Automatic annotation (TrEMBL):
UniProt record similarity statement: Belongs to the TrpF family.
Enzyme Commission code(s) on record: 5.3.1.24
GO biological process: L-tryptophan biosynthetic process
Xref: Pfam families: PRAI
Pathway as given in its UniProt record: Amino-acid biosynthesis; L-tryptophan biosynthesis; L-tryptophan from chorismate: step 3/5
This protein's name: N-(5'-phosphoribosyl)anthranilate isomerase
Limits of the N-(5'phosphoribosyl) anthranilate isomerase (PRAI) domain: 4-204
Organism in which the protein naturally occurs: Qipengyuania pelagi
A GO MF label: phosphoribosylanthranilate isomerase activity
Annotated InterPro entries: Aldolase_TIM, PRAI_dom, RibuloseP-bd_barrel, TrpF_fam
Top-level taxon in the UniProt lineage: Bacteria
Length: 212
């Protein structure tokens, strides 16, 4: 079964909807420039609603050590998503210090970017392929060329992100064989406002692709 991450959640209602619809991962974005930013106080409150069976992902962008340590203490995520220019050394250090699963996003522009991802082997626990950064480092609702993954042989766990919606996720899974799909802006009515019906439709589309 394909794992599902619903990201950029910021209200109890949409968080509960994602859990009820079968998300295996839920994500909170702690990045002030994002329309999905949640404060540490909000995130800590929401965190209490996440059942143990669902993994909580903290999405952050190149945070400095002290703020990152504060965020980790406040939220206690199961996963930290590094969505900036973080080096393999930094990710390894954080992972070894707090013993938390770590994902590194990669903005896939070309076959060369895919080759460069190799340097995160042994440092991150999962690669998250997304479209290249635009106005924001992520959460732009844009897909990359899935054909870049044709013939790619995964050397570590990975996930697919970038512009996924209820309408295209089935094709994305069939085309790439992604073991985990991650969606945020494709499930919104406006930036930062998640739509419960779209969350449900996304999870149903993933399950339909699994059954196909
Ligand atoms: O969602 C954001 O605002 C965001 C900000 C900074 C870094 C990452 C962000 N989101 C992540 O980007 C990918 C793709 O999102 P989308 O589905 O294309 O909107 C996903 O992992 C989001 O969690």
């Amino acid at each position: 079964m394909t794992d599902i991450k619903i990201c950029g959640l910021s209200t109890p209602e949409t968080l509960d909807a994602a859990v009820d619809a079968g998300a295996t991962h839920v994500g909170f974005v702690h990045y002030e420039k994002s329309p999905r930013h949640v404060s540490l106080e909000q995130a800590a409150k929401l965190r209490r609603r996440v059942p143990e069976s669902v993994k909580l992902v903290l999405v952050q962008v190149a945070m400095q050590p002290e703020p990152l340590a504060r965020a980790y203490e406040a939220i206690r995520p199961d996963v930290i998503q590094f969505h900036g220019s973080e080096t393999p050394e930094w990710i390894r250090l954080v992972r070894d210090t707090v013993k938390v699963e770590s994902w590194r996003s990669i903005g896939l522009r070309s076959a060369e970017t895919l080759d460069n991802a190799k340097k995160f082997e042994g440092a991150a626990d999962r690669l998250l392929f997304d479209a290249p950064a635009k106005a924001l480092p992520g959460g732009n609702g844009v897909s990359f060329q899935w054909s870049l993954l044709d013939g790619w042989e995964p050397f570590m766990p990975w996930a697919l992100a970038g512009g996924l919606t209820p309408d295209n996720v089935g094709e994305a899974i069939a085309r790439t064989g992604a073991p985990l799909v991650d969606a945020s802006s494709g499930l919104e009515t406006e930036p930062g406002v998640k739509d419960i019906e779209r969350i449900k439709a996304f999870c149903e589309a993933v399950r339909a692709a699994d059954a196909a």
